[in-house]
Queue: 2 jobs
Job 1
Amino acid sequence: EGEGGDLFDAITTLDDAFSEEGRKKGWEDGKAQGLSEGRVMGIEKGVETDRELGFYRGCVETWHVLLRRQHGSDEAVPPRIAKVLAVMRTLLDGIPQGGPMNDALWDALTKLRTKHKQLSSLLGVTQDLRYAPGAQAVKASAVQDTTF
């Protein structure tokens, strides 16, 4: 009975060791995959955010030029419209750096969206951010090997 008990203990110990080794390997593999997927998602979200900021910058600059032409000078642009344009420009110029963990970025983006709606209403235009039919989203394969 002594040999059988020792054999059973050895099998149990070996099984426990393999289970622990498998758990550690699975944890490391999952961590690596999560890091890779997180990097890809971060890049995709960054591109999306930058496109939106570029859209607002283009709107502000275009509307400023068109309103100046229509009214003859910056001073002749209706004050409410001029004020909203100035606020949007200030928000765009002050966009904080530091990535998506910076709450100030999301606060500024929310304010920009609100001001864009307000300005669109004041100007009587409907303008939404839409991507051209040929525009493609960032593909995960294009950024998998990107390192920072």
Job 2
Amino acid sequence: KPYPFWLVRAPAFSGGDGKGQTELRLIFEVASMGFPITAEQFATTLENMTKAWENIPEDQRLPKDEEKSFFEDCKQTCEEMISRWHSGESSHPDSSTLAEEYPCTPEGIRKLQEHLYQPDIKNDPFVQAADLKLRLVKYTAPSRE
């Protein structure tokens, strides 16, 4: 992805005559620029969640009839993901990078949700496969009724 830039009008002095000319300068903002989560990083996150659910006995997981995609209601899960990235509890290989990108605040949660709903993330075939596998593992308990 290209770095964002601002076009700035600034005076340029030539020949020491003190007369300013206006020129366009590109100012690149690189130092404080973070990068949003990638589809690969998110698929890894979903795979880590699946592994965690696999360690719970099937009858103690969530009921099959409550099955839903990650994307159906992800605010709380996004909050947990960010919290784990910040606490060092996450086993994600990019957890420190992700923690830098997504602060442990309501704004950070909103930012992560917005990024995950982008078509290049949500519609990525590896993300969709990881979401399906998570559902197959997470929702195996009998109905609560």
